[in-house]
Amino acid sequence: MSRHKLKKFAAVAAAPNVLYKPENIQNNWHKVWFQNHNPITLELGCGRGEYTIALARIFPEKNFIGIDRKGDRLWAGARVALHDQLKNVVFLRIDIQNLLTYFGNNEVAEIWITFPDPLARGTKGRLRLTSERFLPLYQKILVKNGVVHLKTDHENLYRFTKNVLLQYDVKRLYDTADLYNEPIDDIALTIQTAFEKKHVELADTIKYLRFKFC
Ligand SMILES: C[S@@+](CC[C@H](N)C(=O)[O-])C[C@H]1O[C@@H](n2cnc3c(N)ncnc32)[C@H](O)[C@@H]1O
């Protein structure tokens, strides 16, 4: 492992706003971490935390938790949040498969899934963040009428997700295969990570789904 990576690992381990497998946090985020009653939004697979940080700046009246299993990526967002003293942001380093260890029923108001790894169909397809393995977890932790947003450049993943959703009692609130060719009804949709910008520059269309469990 490179020296640079080792340094980053040490930094992320010491960062006060990156929690690694915290204990006794389930149902306790408001009391233990945020010390307010504002609604909690998760970004799943947040990478460098760009979307989480941008959301936190736009919506100071909400709490944000960026989740990823890669500590060195989270460190980028954690550094910005510390520098800008963003009190409504924290990062959680876990595997999303273990979400129920860290969040209780109805603890989360909203979930963003931004540019998830498309992964091939078959065994790996089951690890897609919008597969049958993950959706029931989201359903459990979301409040009634809690909303899930998916943004992706990947046609297959978009179609796959719509197919998976057919198995659930969900209400699709917005569905477009070309987000930036539609009237945008939510300022949060104008946020673009470096990953998204790269795809937009390549003239790839961005697909967007918004849904809630009934
Ligand atoms: C393609 S990147 C997108 C990053 C970011 N959302 C963006 O738009 O720039 C996908 C991210 O999801 C994370 N990821 C994928 N599966 C995960 C899982 N099961 N648990 C935690 N993180 C996961 C990866 O580590 C990676 O950082």
Description:
There is one protein chain. With 214 residues, this protein is an alpha/beta fold. The chain has one domain (3-213): Vaccinia Virus protein VP39 (Rossmann fold). The protein has eight helices and eight strands; from the N terminus they run H-E-H-E-H-E-H-E-H-E-H-E-H-E-H-E. It has an eight-stranded mixed β-sheet, sandwiched between helices. Strand 2, helix 3 (50-58) and strand 3 form a beta-alpha-beta unit. Helix 1 packs across helix 4. The longest helix is centred in the middle third of the chain and has 13 residues, at 71-83. It is globular, with a radius of gyration of 17 Å. It binds S-adenosylmethionine. S-adenosylmethionine is lined by residues 45-47, 50, 68-70, 73, 95-97, 114-117, 193, 195-196.
Helices and strands in order, then pairings?
Layout lengths: L2 H12 L3 E3 L8 H6 L5 E5 L5 H9 L4 E6 L2 H13 L5 E5 L5 H4 L5 E7 L20 H7 E11 L2 H11 L4 E7 L17 H8 L5 E7 L1
Parallel strand pairs: 1-4, 2-3, 2-5, 3-4, 5-6
Antiparallel strand pairs: 6-8, 7-8
The structure holds S-adenosylmethionine.
